[in-house]
Amino acid sequence: MDKTFTLDELKQYDGQDGRAAYVAVDGVVYDVSNVGPWAGGKHHGNTAGGDASQAILKSPHGKGVLAKLPRVGVLA
Fold first, then answer.
1. Which of 3, 16, 19, 63 has the fewest C-beta atoms under 10 angstroms from its C-beta?
2. What positions belong to coiled-coil segments (predicted)?
């Protein structure tokens, strides 16, 4: 069963100081901790610990990369 994250809970997963890095896209929460470009919780001006739904639409890779990421829950 998926864990349900509130936006406040998701903010704790910012990839800083050894914390995991999670982002939400279209209500699904993904773990980007082991994705090189997300090192330190930042990727092209985007920050882990939040909703990246709009940012991913503007990215060159689009949503295609999501299939490769571990799904860790859903956004409340």
1. 3
2. none
